[in-house]
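Good morning,

Both structures are done.
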Amino acid sequence: MPLEIVEYYATLDAGHLDEAVAMLAEDVAFSMILPGGANRKTGRAAMLEYLAGRPPVDRKHRVLRSSVDHDLQFVHGAVTEGDRTTGYFVGVMHMRSDGLIDRYQVSFDAEFALLDTDEGSSMNSNMQPTPTLQRWFEYMDSDDPDRVLTMISADFRMSVQFSKGHGEAAEFVGDRDGLVAYLQQREKSTLIHHLDRGASVDGTEMVLGRTTRDGAFEASFNASAQLDDNGHVRRLLIARTPELAFD
């Protein structure tokens, strides 16, 4: 299950500011240490005002390391705009007992990186930013996979080609109701999706990845998602097989 702090940045990068802020406690206290000075405020509304006021650029947070220690979650990563890395960040969040974030501190430096390379990152150097599919599979791996229903458009259509191996396969197709039926029959919180390659071209995100169960390889998959102008998924094609590993 992905950490809430990783999910928070993926939600921001997908442009869903209201959903990201909903992960915060109403009285969240935050401190942002930026090159221009510190921004320390309190409250969801103050955070939303800050996020909405950022310059409208294609900004992504590429998480390179993440960790958890009891009620604290940590990340280190790179900030990109298009193909250009603009700097590096370290973020820490305190998780309240109800799962909301009530304290948040982040620092950003345009030059200093903690790592010599991006090796070991959750989105490696072969990945272009694919924030929507990253968030989709984070939701699918969580205890509440039905959250993907909030990510689809009104005209959503899907096809999931699911192979069990040895020539046995099934296809799940349809609209929102088809996705609901697919979610109802699948295992919950048992498989982890790892995105190993990715690209984003003209509003379509594509990834190649693998699923693991208890750390062991289970299957390879690829996924393509076409997004509408609001960033919602309108077409989704997924194919999966345990017969082939890209190792």
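Second structure follows.
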Amino acid sequence: MIFVVVITIDLLHLQNDFSYRRNRFSRRAFITSFIRKWRKRSCNLSQETIYRKKNNIQKTKSLFQRYNKLALFDAIEWVHADILDVPSLEHAFVNITKVYHCAALISFDPKDENLLRKINIEGTANMVNFCLAKGVQKLCYVSSVAALGDLAAHETIITEETEWNPEKHHSDYAISKYGAEMEIWRAQQEGLNVIIVNPGVIIGPGFPNQGSGQLIKKINDGLLFYTSGSTGFVAVDDVVKNMYQLMESDISGERFILIAENIVFKTLFDTIADTLKVKRPSVEAKPFIMGITWRLYWVFSLFTQKTNHLSKDTARSFLSKDHYSNNKIKTTLNTSFLDIHQYIKERFTVN
């Protein structure tokens, strides 16, 4: 019995690199997206990893160094490919039995609308087509709570069954993830076993300049403002644990919300600030302030052509009070989630 790594994925990265793992008996699991952290499991797996850009290999290496696992990094064979480059995918799908599709572009900048659709929808369609053509047994797609439905007047909490209302406003990102889910359901109709997971905001250490790490870095640098909005949060460890268990089960044709708890942003910001031993954000950014701010960011982005880090949709998300249910995954797998506040204290504590 060999202990090897099972990759933990952080979905909040602006890239579409991907990796795959292979065991010694030609039973292979293909994983799209970037390596975030890992946990050991008793699986007979060796590993090959596909990359899109060389600098992302170095980012991954730094993460292995963080956990003193360079020996595992050196055991990986790196292969160049891209989910939008069909010929490059051809050789990657030889003897693949399971696929974890996590690659995505995450952006709320209106200028990225076409790119979002291309990477998130077309890229997913490519993965689905290869799964069907190559006889893959099971596909797990990592979507987002952004692709879930819209509450009706009598509803108070969003579940897997909440219906998408096309008449309501949705961000370009949400539309692209919803469109990608349609590709997954197409795969099911054509005979592929599929699972969709819808994580909330994923928290995990490793990359301070990307994803949820940017929020933690801003608070560490003295973020002044907070909002009273709320959303669902989940530790990256729990995302991977549940994905793995779902893929190893007989469950198919289902989607599952992955959140540990719904948290008000101010409460989360305070926990992060206290953990980092910095001043808590102290000024509430009310709708009026957020309205002025996103417009200023828009004008700045328009004239500089730089990425808009606070779009109208971003401001809307920080002000929204969204509540999600995790009852389905907890009941199905009899699982529990790490406490987010405790997780932050343990993983981001300043000595």
